[in-house]
Amino acid sequence: MNPRARVIRLMTERLSRDSFPRLQMALIVALTGGFGLLASFVLLQLGLDARSDRAVLQVLAHAARR
């Protein structure tokens, strides 16, 4: 077995044994979607009725964080 394949196998075993990568990724995706939905709802409540306006504002807010 070549060294790269060995390292990949060891890391896969370690991740499977010590953590729950699928659960973690599912949680990250769920939280991201939830916060996106919440942000869209808040902007709608603030009077931004057009979906395109809310999307542009969300993109600008995301860009400002960087």
Describe this structure in words.
With 66 residues, the chain is an all-alpha fold. The protein has one domain (3-65). It is built from 3 helices and no strands. The protein has helices spanning 3-18, 21-45, 51-65. The longest helix has 25 residues, at 21-45. It is elongated. Keywords: Membrane, Transmembrane, Transmembrane helix. The chain crosses the membrane at residues 23-44.
Descriptors:
single chain; 66 residues; mainly alpha; 3 helices; 85% helix; elongated
Count the beta strands.
Answer: 0
Query: How much is the radius of gyration in Å?
Result: 20 Å
Overall number of structural domains: 1
Structural class: mainly alpha
* Biggest sheet features: none
Strand content: under 5%
Q: Could you state the order of secondary-structure elements as H and E?
A: HHH
Could you give the distance between the termini? 43 Å
Shape designation: elongated
Unreliable spans: none
**Discrete helix count:** 3
- Helix percentage: over 70%
Mean pLDDT: 87
State the gist of this model.
The protein has one domain. The protein is built from three helices and no strands.
Task: Compile the SSE list and pairings.
Elements: H1 3-18, H2 21-45, H3 51-65
Helix pairs in contact: 2-3
Keywords: Membrane, Transmembrane, Transmembrane helix
Transmembrane segments: 23-44
